[in-house]
Amino acid sequence: MVDMGLLHEPVARWIWAESLGMPPCELLEAQLNQEFYLKVGPSFWWLHRMLPILGGPVATATPPHLQMTAWLESKMGYVPAFVAELPRQARPFVRQTRRGI
Amino acid sequence: MIPTNVDRILAGRGILKREDVPSITAMRELISDPVPNWLLLQKMVTEEDLHETFLQISHLPRVHEWDAMEVIRLAAVLPPRFALENGCFALRETDGGLVIGLAQMPSAKVLREIHDRLTGYPIFFQSLHYNDACTVRDLLQCDFAAR
């Protein structure tokens, strides 16, 4: 709907975040937490459509699985807070961050 | 720099000869099939070698237990033969979420199909040990043939 000009991206993100039951993410201001990105493994983030953001939260385009959250907690050392990102927005962000690694 | 090319990792494990890696890298530019398929066809590696490399690269949590009846019950979650063709198996359903066991890394297209089909469902991707992957594949193949 964003591509077709029916919705502005911030509005789409807000609706998406509502449907996932979490606050929206502002990727333009977000920086990748490279330490956790590499510690957990790029494959994990790519498969789950998630990315760890510097400062604590995990941006996600999918609802987090309870067991997955517990596993992530064991890797990160704290309970991750999730913020919602649109699936189409997460992909270029992943590519951009991968180039920098 | 992380060595992400399968051929380099296989060479690092002593499965491929190091002197073959440059020609495999060059060949990567010429063929459209994924390199692992080509290595298999050339009998330069075994399926188990590739599977171990997938486990090594992916760093995903491993599937420790699964139930045959549950796997058959959940088979319809994914399109017919999708699991068998792509090595992605719906293994367990808990609290409305799904555990998907992987026998290989899905392509971007396969991953998109999984997320599109399961939109709204929490998914946890885990990796299957080689023997478990073979058993699950055989199980679904038998179930599919019996229908």
Q: How does the SSE layout of this entry go?
A:
The complex is a heterodimer of chains A (101) and B (147).
Chain A (H helix, E strand, L loop, with lengths): L8 H12 L13 H7 L1 H7 L1 E3 L5 E3 L5 H11 L5 E3 L2 H13 L2
Parallel strand pairs in A: 2-3
Antiparallel strand pairs in A: 1-2
Chain B lengths: L5 H7 L8 H8 L6 H7 L5 H12 L9 H6 L8 H5 L1 E7 L2 E6 L5 H10 L5 E5 L2 H17 L1
Parallel strand pairs in B: 2-3
Antiparallel strand pairs in B: 1-2
The gyration radius over C-alpha positions of chain B equals 17 Å
Number of strands of chain B: 3
Low-confidence stretches of chain B: none
Indicate the radius of gyration of chain A in whole angstroms.
13 Å
Biggest β-sheet of chain B, characterized?
3 strands, mixed
Strand content of chain A: 5-15%
Which sheet architecture does the biggest sheet of chain A show?
3 strands, mixed
SSE pattern of chain B = HHHHHHEEHEH
Query: How many separate domains of chain A?
Result: 1
Helix content of chain A: 40-55%
The 3D shape of chain B can be described as: elongated
How far is it from the N-terminal to the C-terminal residue of chain B, by CA? 49 Å
Q: pLDDT average of chain B, as an integer?
A: 86
In which range does the helix fraction of chain B lie? 40-55%
**Number of beta strands of chain A:** 3
Morphology call of chain A: elongated
Biggest interface pair, counts: A-B, 20 and 21 residues
Please state how the strands of the largest beta sheet of chain A are arranged side by side: 1-2-3
Strand fraction band of chain B?
Answer: 5-15%
Strand order of the largest sheet of chain B: 1-2-3
Characterization of this structure:
The complex is a heterodimer of chains A (101) and B (147). With 101 residues, chain A is mainly alpha-helical. Chain A has one domain. Chain A is built from five helices and three strands, in the order H-H-H-E-E-H-E-H. Chain A has helices at 9-20, 34-40, 42-48, 66-76, 87-99; strands at 50-52, 58-60, 82-84. In chain A, strands 1-2-3 form a three-stranded mixed beta sheet. The model of chain A has no long low-confidence stretch (mean pLDDT 82). With 147 residues, chain B is α+β, with helices and mostly antiparallel strands. Helices cover 49% and strands 12% of the residues of chain B. Chain B is built from eight helices and three strands; from the N terminus they run H-H-H-H-H-H-E-E-H-E-H. Chain B has helices at residues 6-12, 21-28, 35-41, 47-58, 68-73, 82-86, 108-117, 130-146; strands spanning 88-94, 97-102, 123-127. In chain B, strands 1-2-3 form a three-stranded mixed beta sheet. The model of chain B has no long low-confidence stretch (mean pLDDT 86). Classes of the chains: A mainly alpha (101), B alpha+beta (147). Chain A binds chain B through residues 19, 38, 40-41, 43-44, 46-49, 62-68, 71, 87, 101, and chain B through 2, 57-61, 94-95, 97-99, 105-106, 111, 115, 120-125.
